Amino acid sequence: MINGFKWIGLIIATMVGAGYASGREIWEFFGLGSSLAIVLFTIMFIVSCQVILEVSYLKKSEHYKPVLEQFLGVKSAKVYDYLVMVYLFTTLFVMIAGSGATVTIFEWSNVIGILLMVILLLVIIPRGMDGVLSINRFLLPLLIVGLFLVLMIFVFQERVSFLYGIRDQSNWVQAIPFTSLNVLPLIAVLSAVGKEIKTKKEIYVASIGSGLILGTISMVYNMSLISVAEQLYFYEIPLFAILNGYPFEMFLLMAVLLWFAIYTTALTSLFGIIARLQELFKQLSTGKIGLCVLLIALPFSFFSFSNLVSYLYPLYGVLNLYVLGAILLFPIVKRATTYKI
After folding, report:
1. String of b and e for 42-73 (b: at least 16 CB within 10 Å)?
2. I want to staple 56 with a disulfide (CB 3.0 to 4.6 A). Which of 95, 139, 194, 331 is the partner?
């Protein structure tokens, strides 16, 4: 039961990456007329987590391949296995671009943020990422709590109405690609803990708890962004529009936490790519592979962070629809097979 809360932390940490925390992901998919969409996302997210965790638990999995094969079959799983690589690579250069966008708020050139990110990634490659991830386990909860507090303060100070535009729910369909966008990372992370899950109660606690928390934060975040919609054109990172007018110390703290979330997201993506490429190029060192990957990613990083998210995130939302459908239908198909319906 207590472990269920640990899995809640893992799920939220997986979801609340730089795209989500910055607000760009929320604004890209939701916006006005999206309250129903967020409710639907919450439901689909809970079901998805429950199904993924249950399959991982039954298979006692340590990595995502057997779980992915369970949902898609061996052949389709191979296709999505390659898609994971592409996803990791695009995430890498989107995060590097995000670093550039973050520093522009201090009126620095985005080139400074991009180069800073690349240099720090190169520095950490030979040392491994255990130390950084240990720090991230401490900083990420701070980011999530800080983000929620900032949003709640903003809601009360600005008297944001949650009933604004409640009759218009035309954007409900966006719940589907938003959920599917996050399906592959969930499978990748949750499949790795299958052996550690002790009881099914943990699964229900983790699924429902994480879904309700993310649904609540998403709703509050979305309504806050709607209230500053006119200012969002001036910000690559929507969170900074909300923070505008806050004390500089809070602004700086959130900017640093956000940048670190971007950095660790880029780092995990880079190490994921390196691990896969080392299977193909065993003669090359980790450092050389990492350098090559970063050199290839660097030109893409000079594109606008907001534009990259605008084009790539919806694309992955569409590409992952098959996986989401397979996950949501899995309990029905399993029951039909069991009872030979």
Report:
1. bebbbbbbbbbbbbbbeeebeebbbbbbbbbe
2. 194
Q: Which residues contact 269 (CB under 8 A, 6 or more apart)?
A: 88, 89, 91, 92, 95
Look at residues 218, 238, 294 and name the one whose alpha carbon lies nearest to residue 98. 238
32: nearest Cα among 230, 257, 301, 267: 230
State the CB neighbour count (10 A cutoff) for residue 113. Answer: 25
Residue 332: Cβ within 10 Å count? 10
**C-alpha angle with apex 187: 181 to 191, nearest 5 degrees?**
170
Are the beta carbons of 318 and 302 closer than 8 angstroms? Answer: no
State CA 257 to chain mean position distance: 15
What is residue 281's DSSP assignment?
-
Helix (H, G, I), strand (E, B) or coil at 159: coil
d(CA 133, CA 136): 5
* Residue 244 tokens, joined: 């505008």
CB 91 within 8 A of CB 308: no
- Distance from chain centroid for Cα 105: 22
Quote the distance between the C-alpha of residue 276 and its chain's center: 21
List strand residue ranges (DSSP E) for 181-255, in order. Answer: none
User: What kind of fold does domain 2-336 have according to CATH?
Assistant: Amino acid/polyamine transporter I (1.20.1740)
For the chain, what are the domain ranges?
Answer: 2-336
| Cβ–Cβ < 8 Å for 172, 36 | yes
Give pLDDT tens digits for 209-225: 999 999 999 999 999 99
Q: Work out the number of other CB atoms within 10 angstroms of the CB of residue 312.
A: 20
Residue with tokens 């589907």: 176
- pLDDT tens digits, 74-126: 888 888 878 888 888 998 899 899 899 888 888 889 999 999 999 988 888 87
